[in-house]
TrEMBL record:
It comes from Adlercreutzia shanghongiae. The keyword NAD does not apply. Signal peptide: none annotated. InterPro entries: Sig_transdc_resp-reg_C-effctor, Tscrpt_reg_LuxR_C, WH-like_DNA-bd_sf. CDD domains: LuxR_C_like (cd06170). It comes from the Bacteria. Coiled coil: none annotated. The keyword Transcription applies. This is Helix-turn-helix transcriptional regulator.
Length: 468
């Protein structure tokens, strides 16, 4: 088994820069901004939610977002400007009442567009690339935060001001490394909206919100031990086990970790808050990575607008996280973490466990087309100028070329790749989590488009592409 870390283009790690900015300036910040008591995380989140949901509803007019460079640079500039204003209130605290609200709204608007443009980029990539790059970006963001914690305030302010602009520069540069055929474009799909993954993420966000007040008082939500652990599990799993690593392991980690976090609220005297906080951030990050990969895969395979999917998912997620914080505040207001409040939390845990048992752990019906994507290192959506690691990537490029030449769908490309690897129809269906009859239909369409009749003809065609 290969233990070499997959090659990751540095520009794709720019996603971690906006994550770092969020913690430094608004969510879990260690800097005593005078603006935060006036218009802090809730106002920032509210502005972000409005923009996310508005873009989701108007996705037909917004997609493709990466072509609206002037709007994107204006958004990054707005976040940087809001950052400067927040840091200036440390010197001129009397200005905080006047600047807090517009600064929070401006930053929420800009960060929402940064979230959407990065989501649009990642939806162009294969599940393997999404998992590796996203996990690595989370770790990169945590590293930036830890470095900034060691800076004196002027240096922290300078770094925070530059982070949104640097993140935007990275994402726009990253689009140039995606094959032209895989770039986002206006498209329609007849499939119903995949509400189940979005609903599941919202439940986790609510549970996380119950712990967020305690979590952010001890460690940063973007740089905690749990965040680093969850991201490392993905990177180490893919590095050590390659295509044998199953992303589904993340949901098996997430549920017990979140339950432990909530249950240990009533065991502070025995364990302390640290363990509960680690479990909460581990669970939330693990499930966030899983849902991110699922939604990117749905956008790539079925033509969903990434702006619509992630606008809804991130917007609804933020709303439920806010509801969780509000519930925790109510619990605290009626006596803190007393016997009564522990009963409330225990009740919330019971509801969540039941919901997860009914939705998360059941076997999907045949009507549900969403699934946990299979991590296949041979999948690649980068342009031909990207470096090729091994023969598996040669095969991926050959299949990609055939797809473009014969106008195969992304799903048919997945089937083509498995057929060339010698997989049977049953194995193709199992790997792609589809019915055997559906796999046969895809194979028939591939043969018709390629004007071939046998598996040998198919392999010959792919081999000719490889040797060119």
């Amino acid at each position: 088994m290969s233990t070499q870390l997959p090659k990751i283009p540095l520009v794709f790690l720019g996603l971690g820069l906006y994550r770092a900015w969020i913690e430094i300036v608004y969510v879990g910040t260690w800097i005593p901004f005078p603006t935060l008591p006036i218009a802090g995380q809730d106002i920032f989140d509210g502005a972000m939610v409005l923009v996310l949901l508005a873009c989701a509803l108007l996705h037909r007019y917004v997609t493709p977002l990466f072509r609206k460079s002037m709007l994107l640079w204006a958004a990054a500039g707005a976040v940087s400007l809001g950052t400067i204003v927040n840091f200036l209130t440390l010197v001129f605290p009397a200005a905080a009442p006047l600047t807090a609200l517009p600064s929070a709204i401006t930053c929420g608007f800009g960060i929402a567009l940064l979230i959407l443009i990065w989501s649009e980029l990642y939806a162009c990539l294969s599940p393997y690339q999404v998992a590796v790059y996203y996990a690595a970006s989370i770790l990169a963001g945590a590293a930036v935060i830890l470095i900034c914690r060691g800076f004196i305030l002027p240096y922290t302010g300078t770094a925070a001001t530059l982070l949104p602009v640097a993140s935007m520069a990275c994402v726009l540069r990253s689009f140039s490394q995606v094959a032209p055929e895989d770039l986002p474009h206006k498209q329609a799909t007849r499939h119903p909206l995949p509400w189940t993954p979005i609903a599941l993420m919202s439940l986790y966000a609510f549970a996380y919100g119950l712990r967020e007040n305690e979590l952010t008082s001890v460690m940063g939500p973007m740089s905690s031990i749990g965040v680093i652990a969850a991201s490392s599990i993905v990177l180490i799993g893919i590095t050590r086990f390659r295509d044998k690593f199953d992303l589904d392991v993340m949901q098996r980690i997430a549920l017990p970790s979140m339950v432990c976090s909530l249950v240990f609220v009533s065991a502070y005297n025995l364990v302390g808050t640290l363990f509960a906080n680690i479990c909460a951030s581990l669970s939330y990050t693990a499930f966030s990575i899983l849902i991110f990969c699922i939604l990117c895969d749905l956008s790539r395979r079925f033509g969903f607008s990434a702006i619509m999917l992630f606008g809804l998912e991130r917007g609804i997620r933020a709303i439920f996280s806010l509801l969780g914080r509000l519930v925790d505040n109510v619990v605290i207001s009626i006596g803190g973490h007393s016997v009564l409040s522990d009963l409330v939390v225990a009740g919330a845990v019971a509801v969540l466990v039941i919901a997860f048992a009914l939705i998360l752990w059941r076997t999907p019906s045949q009507k549900e087309y969403w699934s946990v994507p299979r991590i296949n290192p041979s999948g690649s959506n980068l342009s031909a100028t990207s470096e090729i690691d091994d023969s598996a990537e040669h095969l991926a490029i050959a299949c990609s070329l055939i797809r473009r030449q014969y106008e195969l769908t992304p799903r048919e490309e997945d089937v083509l790749s498995l057929l060339v690897q010698g997989k049977s129809i049953a194995e193709v269906a199992q790997n792609l989590v589809i019915a055997k009859g559906t796999a046969k239909v895809h194979v028939r369409h591939i043969y018709e488009k390629l004007s071939i009749h046998t598996r040998e003809e198919l392999k010959t065609l792919v081999f000719e592409q490889e040797v060119r």
